[in-house]
Amino acid sequence: xxxxxxxxxxxxxxxxxxxxxxxxxxxxxxxxxxxxxxxxxxxxxxxxxxxxxxxxxxxxxxxxxxxxxxxxxxxxxxxxxxxxxxxxxxxxxxxxxxxxxxxxxxxxxxxxxxxxxxxxxxxxxxxxxxxxxxxxxxxxxxxxxxxxxxxxxxxxxxxxxxxxxxxxxxxxxxxxxxxxxxxxxxxxxxxxxxxxxxxxxxxxxxxxxxxxxxxxxxxxxxxxxxxxxxxxxxxxxxxxxxxxxxxxxxxxxxxxxxxxxxxxxxxxxxxxxxxxxxxxxxxxxxxxxxxxxxxx
Length: 296
Known about the structure:
This protein is mainly alpha-helical. It contains twelve helices and six strands. The protein starts with a helix and ends with a helix.
C-alpha cells in the first residue's frame, strides 16, 4: 500500500507539479491514506485536506532543498541515506589505549617474555632441535660435480715442460705428484677441453671422467683415454701410499667392479699400483681371510 503511494508521488514529481490529474482517483487515495497508520504527515495532509474540485496541492520547494532536515520522506532510499545494517560492521579493538579500554597497558600480551615482545619463528620449538617436524634430506650430489677438473691445455703445457712423460700411461698419481692437479683428489679427476689442433702427439691417460670432445681430440692424435674406477680407499692408497706403508699396513686392494648405477661411466677398474701384474693382485686377495675377502 505504501509502495503504491510512493509510485504515485514519484510519477507526480517533487518540483511543484499539481495533483489535478489524480482527481478521479481521490476517493481511493483517501481510503488508502486512512488505512495507513504510519503514513508521513505531509502525504496525509496533502490527500485529506484537498477538495475534489480544487486539487492543487504540491510539495513546498523549500522542503526539497539539499541539506534540509525535512527534504524527503524517511521511506525514500537514495545515495544520501544508504547505511549498513546495524551490527554488520564490527570495529576493531584498539590496543594500548589505557586501562579503560579492553586492551590497555599490555595490549593483551602479558607482562614480559618472548611472546610479549614478538612472535617466535615458525620452526622454533622451545630451544630444542625443531627441524624434526620438517626433516631435511641431505643427499650427496652427483660424482661429476665433485671431481677435480683438469683442462686439456694445462695437461699439454705440463707435458711440454717435461713435468709429465707422455711416452707412458699418465695416471692420477702422476697428475697429483707433478702438481698438475693442485687440490686434494677425493673423488676423481675430470678431463675437459676442446683441444682441436692442441694435441700433436700420442697421449695415454687414465682419469675418472672425460668429455667427449676431449676424447676425440686425444684419440685423433693417436692417444687414448681410459676412465678408471676407484673406491675412496683405493684412491687414497694410489695417491698417498705412505699413509699405509709408514705404519706397516698393506695397501688396499682394487675394487671388484663398480655399482650397476655407474654402468657406462667407466672402462676399467683402477689399480692401486699401476705396474703390478694382475696375478699378484689375485694372489694377495687369496691370502686374505675369507671374511676380509667378502668385505673387499
